[in-house]
Amino acid sequence: MEWEAVIGLEVHVQLTTESKLFSGASTRYGALPNTQACALDLAMPGTLPVLNEAAVAMAIKLGLAIHGQIARTSSFARKNYFYPDLPKGYQISQYDEPVVKEGYLDVALADGIKRIHITRAHLEEDAGKSLHEDIKGMSGIDLNRAGTPLIEIVSEPDIRSADEAVRYLKALHALVRYLGICDGNMQEGSFRCDANVSVRPKGTTTFGTRTETKNVNSFRYVEKAILYEIERQTNLLAEGGTVTQETRLYDPSTNTTRPMRSKESANDYRYFPDPDLLTLRISDAWIDAMKAELPELPAAKQQRFQENYGLSAYDATVLVGSKELADFFEAVVSLSQAPAKLVSNWVTGELAAALNRDNKDIAESPISTNSMAGLLKRIHDQTISGKIAKTVFEAMLAGEGEADTIIQAKGLVQITDIESIAKIVDKVLLENQAQVDAYRAGKTQLFGFFVGQVMKQTQGKANPEQVNALLSERLT
Amino acid sequence: MHDLSLSQLSLELEQGHLSSYELTEHLLKRIAAHDSQLNSMITVTATQALAAAKQADSLRKQNQANALTGIPYIHKDIFCTQDVLTSCGSKILENFISPYDATVTQQLKQAGMVMLGKANMDEFAMGSSNENSHYGPVKNPWQLDYVPGGSSGGSAAAIAAQFAPVATGSDTGGSIRQPAAFTNLTGIKPSYGRVSRYGMVAFASSLDQGGPMARSAEDCAMMLNAMSGHDPLDSTSLPLAPLTIGKADLHQPLKGLRVGLPKEYFTDSLNTEMRDRIEAAAKTLEALGCDIVNISLPHSHLAVSVYYVVAPAEASSNLARYDGVRYGYRCENPVDLQDLYLRSRSEGFGVEVKRRIMVGTFVLSSGYYDAYYLQAQKVRQLIRNDFLDAFKQVDVILSPTTPQPAFKLGERMADPIQMYLADLYTIPANLAGLPALSAPAGFINGLPVGFQLIGKDLEEAKILAVAHQYQQVTNWHLQQPAFNTIV
């Protein structure tokens, strides 16, 4: 039998507000434990929540970006359970009236665009952190994160493979970064994913029993965890077994998932409307104002890159994958006046590789848009060849200065004077008579040898096209 | 000087006949000498009070005083007070020194008032007799073997015993009005959202309102002015400026004012003498120019049931934070997390609080939510609609505050339902969010009783005006307990 996976994702997006969802304490990451928890975050008696307007504004932007319905009225509920890192004994979350409903995200797959529907996106506060390892015989509690605003984005079970799941996540990740509502840092937990996975015989329409794999904190782990779950469930069902509905935890060290707790024994959260908070009302005017603030989003940007710069769909997709990368590309095009395709190749090629090697983000690029444009100008005006440009680029990375400085200092200016090149070509042919004879006798693969010799004699500075043209001419 | 009312003291201070320091010192001595008989105070903040009084006197010298500057008051222990124990009458907060002030605490500080200390109360404001306090029951100065009412029983007993001219209270189902009635005081529960709840330890968030208790309606008005106003720290606080109820408001003409008597409040279960007192009050109001109108509030009989679903539900969640983890009482040597929670809460909470947490947890549970909590919320709306309908015919509603006068200490402790029924007439105003006050209406067997006035949304000034003008032609509110003549 052929099996089909049915996957829905719940993504927790930590918002980049200055302060928490219901208190004035800072949300900055990495502060000393419990230095960013105010009386409300500590659930001191008598404290009351006041909703952070900035978080709502971000929810509206997200709702608009995913083509969702922005609820004109929504509400907050209390999810009651006891845990030491949940100071109030309840989490304030949106339960039956979320702020955003029924949106979608178009995701580029190998064989076209797929629309993944989004059931809802709601605001909620994060819990603190329990630290079980650091203090001998005790557990530590850090409430810095308690009350940090999150948007939980729940997809429909539209996803059919681990690859689709990752592509959806990456698209969502790019989107929230474009919107400026999340820093997207997965290691720090700013973008977390729970994966609901079930399998069913292909062709059937009812859902199988699902498991929920919690808090998978990288794209790679999401892919592996889902692949593992699909295989595990498929094997179980194929052998006539049944899948237990449960929450599972992914272990990257073994690349497996294991049960965390079963839903049957799960808490009764006793949701009820939070009487400390009023109904959240969002006016049309507010929505319009947020609409006006929306940046160009990835899909529109990709379209524009293809149309205005003549880039391929592939190149455009890679560039718009991060707003910073797309911005970098456009700045370099504009500063250098070099062809967009050339800039795209350099930005997604050499520069991306260099950043990747040093595990850096485009925002941390050691080469500024100005410097990069300086290099591309020289390639474009043929001062240097593409090959020499790589040497210059490495020198720039090493901090040796701007492209022009390096080209001057190292005497790397390309030889484009046809007379000078012709002299060297003739010299090379004269010194290698045997190879010339062999070439003329039909061993045409020796062409590259002659090019190499010319380049060697000019320290790579000869214009490659001119060298090729001259050699072809002389050797016929 | 302890027998003077707030408005009288204000005048004395203004005219320089008296300093706040003298007054404060005198009242502190009075508390020290006599509170052992009443147990109305949990904490007396003598040093801070004298310092505040000194400061108030110097403000007055600099002509920076208002009517409340230098006036001593007693603060219900439900309001957070920075650096002072805020126990809420509970063992679980017996070591809780608040790191911050409630908004009301701040407002009264700003006005220059002098806090003498924190008043005893039913634990987490759950009770109608002040017998549910970790700090022991409070006695009623009118008869020491009777309860002063609850949950603001300490505030009530202290003011009745002239330890201070005014006190704060909080009212979730009658906790200001019922003890005011039991101790011959005037007390007002404002419209929901009129007084900030920030820093007032939560019992049932959608019902809780802070308010003043004093020896006259006029004094209540002066206090309420200072306690009211929008607070950005409380999302349910109404976006309105502080009240400025003055003499002109209190003397607004009552001619033609329609006073409704709800027939559902005057059934056979009402003590006949109580009925007589309220009818007498109605007669007095009639003499003042009011028109008495019979009205109906058809869902009244459901109020207590609704209340005992909604209030415990909210309380069960509000009290989850007392877990022994961050502050407050923690059991000794917990073996694990479960044990820490179980024993800290079992040992830290009293019987009535635990009863309500259990009821509240039950009514919110999966499978029962719709039948109890959701249903109760629907009926709550019907009760509010009753009032809105009635207010098409009348301007204020008059009723008894309680079905009977104060009962004996211990008398109802074994029967929670009987205890709950003490709030039969006060609960509806909380459910509907309406302003309501209790004012002295006379005596039954030497024990004071009160009448209740319920007003339209935000019409505190109107019900205070009715009570004030009633107090201009009656002297019930001037009667003092024998306790005050002996001591």
Describe the structure.
- The complex is a heterodimer of chains A (476) and B (487).
- Chain A is built from 15 helices and 16 strands.
- Chain A has 476 residues and is α+β, with helices and mostly antiparallel strands.
- In chain A, helix 7 (323-336) crosses helix 8 and helix 12 crosses helix 14 (447-457).
- Chain B is of the alpha/beta class and 487 residues long.
- Chain B folds into two domains: 6-259 and 393-485, Amidase signature (AS) domain (Amidase signature (AS) enzymes); 301-378, no CATH class.
- Chain B is built from 17 helices and eleven strands.
- Chain B has helices at 6-14, 20-38, 46-61, 103-110, 153-160, 177-182, 217-227, 247-250, 272-287, 303-318, 337-348, 351-364, 370-390, 416-420, 427-432, 460-473, 482-486; strands spanning 41-44, 72-76, 114-119, 166-171, 186-189, 209-214, 258-262, 291-295, 396-400, 436-444, 447-455.
- In chain B, strand 7 (258-262), helix 9 (272-287) and strand 8 (291-295) form a beta-alpha-beta unit.
- At the A-B interface, loops of A face helix 10 of B.
List keywords for this structure.
heterodimer; A: about 475 residues; alpha+beta; 9-stranded mixed sheet; 3-stranded antiparallel sheet; 15 helices; B: about 475 residues; alpha/beta; Amidase signature (AS) enzymes; 11-stranded mixed sheet; 17 helices; 11 strands; about 40% helix; globular
Concise overview:
The complex is a heterodimer of chains A (476) and B (487). Chain A is an alpha+beta fold and 476 residues long. Chain A contains 15 helices and 16 strands.
List the topology elements:
The complex is a heterodimer of chains A (about 475) and B (about 475).
Chain A lengths: L2 E12 L38 H13 L3 E2 L2 E2 L2 E4 L9 E4 L6 E10 L2 E14 L3 E3 L8 E3 L6 E7 L6 H17 L12 E11 L9 E6 L2 H20 L7 E6 L4 E7 L9 E2 L6 E2 L2 H10 L4 H12 L3 H8 L2 H14 L3 H18 L11 H12 L5 H12 L5 H8 L7 H14 L1 H8 L6 H11 L6 H12 L1
Parallel strand pairs in A: 12-13
Antiparallel strand pairs in A: 1-10, 1-11, 2-6, 3-16, 4-5, 4-15, 6-7, 7-10, 8-9, 11-12, 13-14
Helix pairs in contact in A: 1-4, 2-3, 5-6, 7-8, 7-9, 9-10, 12-14, 12-15, 14-15
Chain B lengths: L5 H9 L5 H19 L2 E4 L1 H16 L10 E5 L26 H8 L3 E6 L33 H8 L5 E6 L5 H6 L3 E4 L19 E6 L2 H11 L19 H4 L7 E5 L9 H16 L3 E5 L7 H16 L18 H12 L2 H14 L5 H21 L5 E5 L15 H5 L6 H6 L3 E9 L2 E9 L4 H14 L8 H5 L1
